């Protein structure tokens, strides 16, 4: 399938703008030292005083805390029937396997990359950026990590072949914590931005990377949740200014649920946009987002054939036997 020429031009144009955005934290760090005559006033090796009190909480969240939060909210969603009886036996199997596989298999891969590959490829760069102030490292990683993920997410929707790797995440006919980790494993390993983050941590930005990872996980998990925590911001007029800023900066349930709708014909769904993960502002900048403050009535993909868990997790290594499935043998 050929790519629409106008889409190709837009992608090239938006990538050019992205290169400028990537450079902004680097420019800010340069100006910081220039106006301080090159003096190192602080280093991220030691957290700013106002953040030291929360460091233990962030460290626990990074190890086991986020999994506990995810499971806890998932139980709440299930008790209150927020899955609308769509979490069938086959769907549970896909969700559970996709939840466990990355947590069991991905850490060794990232550890090997960080401990073996990086020292071999860039042996003289370990802790080379340890002089960068915490705030500088935080924004450098936040932008590099999330803008990179915006792009691989967007391209997996706009390039037909790549869509087959990302399709698993959109096969769920419901929203909730259970499907937040629902991804093709090869998509996660080969196309993730985690290698960029690991590289920056190797360069000496470990603490900023920790804070970005935890903050991003909280935002993305809450955006997938069936608990619409953003509705009060739309309901009460006094909170409307906060809502206006919030929904343009980060992903909320309303904006991200729209991305998982199975149609764009209702004026609410926007699976062809709303690609932001932690930051929704990328969709604002590149005109790929819509904000309606409404929630879709149905979710998933019209082409979903309830493919086997192994096909959804490991296509194209394993194919589906479901007739008419894009994941089946051709």
From TrEMBL:
Q: Give the matching Pfam families.
A: FA_hydroxylase (PF04116)
Question: Its principal location?
Answer: membrane
Name one process (GO BP) from the record: membrane lipid metabolic process
Drop me one GO molecular function for this one: glyceryl-ether monooxygenase activity
* Highest rank taxon of the organism: Bacteria
Span of domain Fatty acid hydroxylase: 139-288
What are the entry keywords? Answer: Lipid metabolism, Membrane, Oxidoreductase, Transmembrane, Transmembrane helix
Alphabetical GO CC annotations of the entry are: endomembrane system; membrane
What is the annotated localization of this protein? Endomembrane system
Q: Tell me the membrane topology, using the record's own terms.
A: Multi-pass membrane protein
Q: Any keyword S-adenosyl-L-methionine?
A: no
Q: Which InterPro entries match?
A: Fatty_acid_hydroxylase, Sterol_desaturase/TMEM195
Membrane spanning stretches: 12-33, 64-83, 104-122, 128-147, 185-203
Record PANTHER family: ALKYLGLYCEROL MONOOXYGENASE, STEROL DESATURASE-RELATED PROTEIN
- From the Swiss-Prot or TrEMBL record, give the protein name: Sterol desaturase
Provenance organism: Flavobacterium psychrotolerans
